[in-house]
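User: Modeling request: complex.
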Amino acid sequence: MEKVLEVKNIEKYYGNKSNLTKAINNISFNVVKGEFVGIMGASGSGKSTLLNVISTIDRVTAGHIIVNGEDITKLKGNKLNKFRREELGFIFQDFNLLDTLTAFENIALALTIQKVNSKEIEKRVYDIANKLGIKEILKKYPYQVSGGQKQRIASARAIITNPKLVLADEPTGALDSKSARQLLENFEFLNKNMNATILMVTHDAFTASYANRILFIKDGKIFNEIIKGNDTRKQFFEKIIEVQTLLGGDLNNVI
Amino acid sequence: MLFKLSFNNMKKSIKDYSIYFLTLVLGVAIFYMFNSIDSQQAMLQVSQSQREIIKLMITMLGYISIFVAFVLGLLIVYANNFLINRRKKEFGIYMTLGMGKRQISKIIIMETIFIGIISLIVGLVVGIFASQFMSILVAKMFEADMSSFQFVFSKEACIKTCIYFAVMYVAVMFFNTFTVSRYKLINLLNAEKKNEKIKMKNPFLCILVFLGASTMLGYAYWKVTADASSITTADKILPPILMGVASTILIFWSLSGFIIHVVQRMKNTYYNGTNMFVLRQINNKINTMVASMSIICLMLFMTISVLSSSLALRNTMQRELVEMTPVDLNLYKTANLPETYMKYNVKKKSTREQREDSKIPITQTLKNNGLDINVLKDIIEISTYTSDDLTLGKFFGSKYEEIKQEYPMLNYDIAEEIIKISDYNKIAKLYGIEEYTLNDNEYILLCDFKSQIEIRNRALESGNILTIANKKYKSKYNECKDGFVVMSTSHTNTGIILVPDNCPLTEEMKERHFLAANYNANTEEEKEKIEVIFSSGDSGLIQSLDSKGIEIDGMTKISIMESSVGIATIVTFIAIYLGVIFLIASSAILALKQLTDASDNKQRYTILRKIGCDEKMINKSLFRQIGIFFGIPLVLAIIHSIFGIQFAITIMSGLASKEDLLPSAIATVIIIGIIYGAYFIATYLGSKNIIKEER
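Assistant: Request completed. Predicted assembly structure:
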C-alpha cells in the first residue's frame, strides 16, 4: 500500500536544559492511503503536539515526517504554506469557520486561495455539500447553523481540495452526541466512498471507535495500537475501553 | 507598586500606543508652531504696516486655537477610549485579584500623565524645530530678510501649549475614570468572547438607497455649480449642504452592500484568492463605521477644499498684484480747489496757498517742496476732468430709471471721470497695458470692476449718447474696455471715460492732477530709501507739504504689496492650520479604528493561516482592507471637493481664479498625501504586527 504519512523517530522537547519537557519522546508510525487512524491519549499525553508537528504548525526537535514522499520537517516558509494548502485538510474542535463568510464561501475559500477556476469552484462546492447533506445551509452564516452543521461545513472545507491527509483535532469535542454521531458517519463516508485518509485525535472512546486503527499515546510515547479488523464497531469500542482502563486514562490521578 | 505596573504597561503596549502617541505629538507640535508665529524671526524683520496685519493674524489664530484645542480634546478622549477598551481583559484580571476600581483608575491616570508628559515634551521639541522651518516659509510669504538666521524659542507659546494640553489630559482622565466606574467584572473577562452577529442588509434596499443617494448627491453638485447663480442668499446654500451630508451617510450605509452584490456577480474576481474574505470583512465592518466614515469623509472634504481654495486665492491675489502695480508710485492731488471743499464729510475752507498750488502740476509742487526730482524716473503727469453735464445717472441715459430701481444704493449724482485719449495712452504705455484710438464724436469707457461692468454694459448696449462740454459723443464699443489709471490691490476701476484730444475740455474742468513714476533705483534697498521720502511722516517733503496744508494722495507699489500679501498670508495660515488639524483628527480616528479591528480580527487571520494562506496572501489582504478603508472616504471627499472648490471660486468671484487652482490642488494633495499616508502606513504596520502569529 502507498504510504501517505511516515513518522520516523520524532521527538519534541519544550523548555531548557534545567527544565526539559519531552512532549514527544521517539514516536514512529505509518499511515497508508485510505486509512482512518485515531490517536488517543489523556490530556498532556502529547497527542496535540503530535498533530501540530504533522500539520507543520509546530516543528520537531528531532526525527522526520514524510508526507507523500516529501520530508516536511525540511520545508520552510512559503513551501510550508503551499504544502499545508495543497496536501493537508484540517478539521478543528472549534470549527474555525470565518464568521463573516457564508457556509458556501467558507468552503470555497479553501479553493480560491489555491487559485482554482471560478466555475469549477461552484461545481465542487455543490458536489461536496450534497454528499455531506449541507446543501440547504450553504447560504447561511456560521452563527445561523448548529454546531454539528458547522463541523460538517468545516469537513467539507477540509476535503474539498482533495488533500492527501485530513487531520482532525477533537472534531466532536464541541458537539452533542447526536451531532457527533452524524459527523462521524460523514467521516466514515468520506473515508470509504471518497477514499480520504484521515488522522483523528480524540480522547473520546466513542468517537475513536469509528476509526480503523487506534494509536494510544502516553507521556509522549506510543503505548499501544489496536486494529479494528473485522470487529463490529461495538466490539472495537469495548476494546478501546479496555486499553483505556489499562492506560489509566483520565482516572490515572484518582486514588 | 501601581506606578511600576502602569510603567510596565506602557512599555508593553508601546506599539498599541504608537498611533495615539503620534497624534498627540503632532497635535502638540502644530499647536506650538502656530501659536509661536509672533515671536518667530521672520516676524521681527517685517515692516511696520505688516506688523499690524500680523497682530490681526495672531488675534485670529488665538481664537482658532481654542476651537482647535476643542477638536484635539475630543480626538484625544476618543483615542484614549479605544485604548482603554482594548485592555478590558487586563483590567478584569486586576479586579479578580482584588483591585478596586479606584486603583484601576489610578493606574490609568498615571499612564495618562506619563504619556501626556512624554508626548508634550516630544511634541514641543518637534514643534520648536518645525517652527524654524515655518519661519523660513513665513519669511518667503512676507518677503522678509532672513539672511541672519537665528534659533527662536517662544516661551509664551510653550506655556500656552502646556496649559491647553494639560486641560485636555485632565478631561481625558475624567472620562477614563467615568468609563472604568461603569465596568462590570463579568463583561471585562468575557470582553473578547463577544459574539458579533453579522447583520446583512437587504441587497435590493442597498442598491436602491445607493442609487437614491447618488442621485441626491448629483443634484446637490448641480445646485452648487451649474445652478450656483440661484444661490443668492446665505440660507439657500444650506439645503445643498444638508443634501450632501445626508447622501454621504447614505452612500456609506449602502456602499458595501452594493459593491458586494456587484462583485459577487463577477465570479472571476470574487472567487480569486482572498478577495471574498476582504470584501466580507469590509462589508462587516463598514456597518459599524458608517458614522465615523462619514465624519472622516466630510473632514477630508473640508481640508481639501479649504486648503486648495485658500492657496488658489493667495496665488491669484499675488498674480493680480503684479498686474495691478506696474509702477512704483502714483500721486494725485485735487486741481482747481474751490474756496470751500468737502474732506471726509467735513466742510473746509481752503487757503490761498492751497488754491494756488492746486493749479500747478504735481512735479512742480514736489520741486517747490524740496524734492530732488531725480529720485524719480519715467514720470508721466496727466489731468483728469469732470464735466457738470456728465454724472453717473446721465451716463445711463434711457436706462437710468430701470437701473436706479434695481440698484437704489448707487450715487447717481457723482461726476464721471474724463481723460483725454493721448493722456491715457501715455499712462498705458508706461503700465504696459492696451492703448486705444478714437475718432471724433466717439468715447471709450474703461472699467474693470466686475459688478460695474455688468451695469454699464447695459447702457453701452443701448447705444447711449453722452454730452461732454456741449458736444455729443457715442461709444466706440458696445461694452466696457479693460484699463485703469490708479494702482490698487485688485481691479477696482469703476469707470473712466476716454475722449478725443479735441474735446473742448477747459482748464476749469480739471478735477485732478495725476502722476505715475518709477523710483530711480536699481536695487530693492535703494527703492526702500526712496519709498521713505513718500511714505514716512518724518521726510522733508511731507513735512514741507504738511506745513503748507497741501494734500497729495498716493499709492506705492511697496505698500500695496505689503498690505495685500498680509491678507493672503492670514488666509493661507489659518487654512493650513485648520486643514492639518482636521486631517490629523480624521486620519487618527480611522487608524485607531483599523487597529482595534485588527486585534478583533486576529482570530480570523489565524484561521486563514490554518487553512494554508501564506503570510504574503494575508498581508496583501490586510493591505487591501486598510487601503480600502482609507481610500473610500478620500475618494468621495475628492469628488465632493471638485464641486465644492468650484462653488468656493464662484462665491469668491474674481478673488481666486481657476488657473491658480491646479498648482494649489497639487500642493494640497502633497500635504494630505504626507499626513494621511503616514497614518496609513503606521496603521498597516501596526495591524500587521497585531495579527502576527505568536510562537
